[in-house]
Amino acid sequence: xxxxxxxxxxxxxxxxxxxxxxxxxxxxxxxxxxxxxxxxxxxxxxxxxxxxxxxxxxxxxxxxxxxxxxxxxxxxxxxxxxxxxxxxxxxxxxxxxxxxxxxxxxxxxxxxxxxxxxxxxxxxxxxxxxxxxxxxxxxxxxxxxxxxxxxxxxxxxxxxxxxxxxxxxxxxxxxxxxxxxxxxxxxxxxxxxxxxxxxxxxxxxxx
Length: 207
Known about the structure:
By secondary structure, the chain is mainly alpha-helical. Helices cover 56% and strands 4% of the residues.
């Protein structure tokens, strides 16, 4: 049995920062200590159905994103650009922009060696909606490019982190869960601004 000592929790303000503050050395040390073999059912995934499943999964993520954008349009309005002290004076707009850039930087920049996005000036919800249209296109191209190769590792350099290797499946999982992580923060920011947020869970789309 492997004993893993939990790392002390960061203060709330550090947790809420969305710039990258990961202790890579610590993470690698823990990964090295854990000798857990992946279950067979994970290793032998039915690859023929994987892309379709990931496309459907992304559509569910887009549906919850639609709830967020509708709420921001109807309720939050100009407070989209209001700094929030509890979140290091970041704004909802900045967090939405950061999430979109994460999709592009991983799925296009890292995975397909595409150049960074040209400087943008996304200050309104309409601007952000256009940015997320680019995200949709980036996801579609990524899934098409790596059809049948989702478990074949790719190598590259990302965001000053040095040389990395990851499967397209792992990269896609990262950007999707990253959006949900920050979606929860955005809803907390709305509440702090005086706008009680709606339920944005995927379960809204269960039959």
